[in-house]
């Protein structure tokens, strides 16, 4: 999002292995002790503003810059609803699938949790695929914060979590084409290769 908007920024890596998310400095930005979090030194009224939660950050940056969020009320609310879809569904479900497929959960004998998150991830991918069947981007024919919110999650599902075969990603052809289009954007390419940012 920072690359798409052109705003100046500094990346600060938070090492969860060292507990940096629990330091007083980080908790002053995000009392929930999670990433992402931002500090805008030039917030409303010229005052610093700390924000956490990806959806809130995307919404704030879109409003601040007038980019990636339609001005018309219908397009605006359609975009926001897809951001909420990611925040409430895609993010948590793909993340839980990753835990049970790649991390500690994979050694659990009871596979019902993994099966549940696979099924829900497939359902969400099906919703996305049907929506993208007749469009390039989630809302109004233009790249928006709705797309930004989901690109990393889908990329990680099939890449970092190595779950493409598990969810049958090949059958979600419209999602795959959307992902390729999004990842080909120059700003996205710059964003995913920032040293020390995301893994």
From TrEMBL:
<feature type="domain" description="GST N-terminal">
    <location>
        <begin position="1"/>
        <end position="69"/>
    </location>
</feature>
<dbReference type="InterPro" id="IPR004045">
    <property type="entry name" value="Glutathione_S-Trfase_N"/>
</dbReference>
<dbReference type="Pfam" id="PF02798">
    <property type="entry name" value="GST_N"/>
</dbReference>
<dbReference type="Pfam" id="PF13410">
    <property type="entry name" value="GST_C_2"/>
</dbReference>
<dbReference type="InterPro" id="IPR010987">
    <property type="entry name" value="Glutathione-S-Trfase_C-like"/>
</dbReference>
<dbReference type="InterPro" id="IPR036282">
    <property type="entry name" value="Glutathione-S-Trfase_C_sf"/>
</dbReference>
<protein>
    <recommendedName>
        <fullName>Glutathione S-transferase</fullName>
    </recommendedName>
</protein>
<dbReference type="InterPro" id="IPR040079">
    <property type="entry name" value="Glutathione_S-Trfase"/>
</dbReference>
<dbReference type="InterPro" id="IPR036249">
    <property type="entry name" value="Thioredoxin-like_sf"/>
</dbReference>
<feature type="domain" description="GST C-terminal">
    <location>
        <begin position="72"/>
        <end position="199"/>
    </location>
</feature>
């Amino acid at each position: 999002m920072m690359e798409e908007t052109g705003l100046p920024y500094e990346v600060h890596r938070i090492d969860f292995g060292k507990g940096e998310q629990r330091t007083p400095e980080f908790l002053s930005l995000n009392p929930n002790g999670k990433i992402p979090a931002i500090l805008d030194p030039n917030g409303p009224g010229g005052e610093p503003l700390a924000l956490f939660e990806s959806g809130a950050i995307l919404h704030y940056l879109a409003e601040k810059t007038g980019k990636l969020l339609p001005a018309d009320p219908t397009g605006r609310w359609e975009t926001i609803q897809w951001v909420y879809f990611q925040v409430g569904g895609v993010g948590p479900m793909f993340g839980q699938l990753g835990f049970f497929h790649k991390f500690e959960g994979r050694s659990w004998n009871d596979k019902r949790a993994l099966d549940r998150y696979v099924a829900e991830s497939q359902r969400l991918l099906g919703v996305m695929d049907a929506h993208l069947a007749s469009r390039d981007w989630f809302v109004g024919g233009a790249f928006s914060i709705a797309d930004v919110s989901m690109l990393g999650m889908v990329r990680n599902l099939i890449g970092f979590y190595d779950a493409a075969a598990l969810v049958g990603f090949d059958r979600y052809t419209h999602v795959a084409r959307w992902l390729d289009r999004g990842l080909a954007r120059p700003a996205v390419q710059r964003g995913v290769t920032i040293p020390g940012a995301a893994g």
